[in-house]
Amino acid sequence: MINNKEHMNRREIEKKELETIKIDGNIGETVQNGAGYSAPETSLQEGRVIYKNRGHYRVQTSDQVFDAVLSGRFKYETVGNIDFPAVGDWVTIFLVDGHCRIESVKPRRSVFVRKQKDTGGKKMAGGVGTTQEQVIAANVDKAIIVTGLDGNYNLKRIERFITLAYNSGAKPIIVMSKRDLCPTPEALIEAVKAVAFGIPVIGYSAVTGEGFEMLSAELEPTDTIVLIGSSGVGKSTLTNKLLSASVQKTGETQLHTAKGKHTTTAAQLLQGVNGLAIIDTPGVREVQLWADEETLDQTFDDIGALTAKCRFNNCTHGNEPGCAVRAAIESGALTEERYAHYLKLQREIAFLNRKKQQLQTMRNRKQKHFKKR
Ligand SMILES: Nc1nc2c(ncn2[C@@H]2O[C@H](COP(=O)(O)OP(=O)(O)OP(=O)(O)O)[C@@H](O)[C@H]2O)c(=O)[nH]1
Ligand SMILES: [Zn+2]
Q1: Domains of the chain, earliest start first
Q2: 237 marked as binding residue
């Protein structure tokens, strides 16, 4: 039903567009013809993508939010996923009677790209052995790396996050949260400063508010930011604080997309009136997962090399004959401790992957439910 209606609308729109162009060839003008027929109002505008879910987009202009679809040229002319609009992108939109179509993506000043290894299990456009690139967030100015002072503390992971931020073009800022739970945070903060040359490192507590001023001083009102870090470190708490703080600064105008508590809105780019924008997409939430996967691959490349020498492709390094990993442990070439560390990280990643899949299933169910109505 819905699809049919949409289809009809699109055909009508296209017909009307043609008529408009025939009438005067000028976009943005309403023309009356002799029969009293009022040609549709059309205009080209600029906006920002604040929501994306598969082919469904939402675009915010200076004064409105539109549901948007992609123009046909994206289907036929783009080469890879990377060319499709992502949350944070500035786009040109074509409006016909309130219907919005994304025409083009403006050049990005920074971009978080997720490279997904093609396992060969799923058929992807690039074919087996290639990597698929997907834009997680675009035009991010600053990446706030959040890490807890209460024990969730891993220098290697922080280094990965820093690299991710630099690769994207965003400027990293490190927030060490839950300062109130750590009686002597100085040594930990110093250790992080040692791996984070020149990057601001801020001890922060959501409970006492300590460090918030220092963080605010690092941000411009026009910044677009992402918060990355492990689960439970306080990203949501800080997001809400940043959004409401930015609202308080100007106070009077209405928020377009967020009302302080960001969990209640469907938008993925949350914006305070004075301009500060926070991108919080499912993809951004998974940044931890890919940072960890990369850490596992890079830090334990020796174990990866051994695994390749195991007799069986799917060796679990348990009781299988011809296991190169167990042989290395027995010969002392690989320490038990290092292998245990590897297994621990691998388990954490598997856990996060399961969590991610559960979330995806839940999202799919919700969507099915939504479509039925
Ligand atoms: N004591 C203390 N608790 C905090 C602080 N910041 C956050 N918390 C608490 O830590 C818990 C987790 O915080 P969240 O903001 O949900 O963490 P998150 O990083 O968004 O977690 P995910 O949504 O799982 O990614 C909540 O119970 C917060 O109230 C802090 O500075 N001090
Ligand atoms: Zn093995």
Answers
A1: 2-105 (2.40.50.140), 140-281 (3.40.50.300), 300-372 (1.10.40.50)
A2: yes
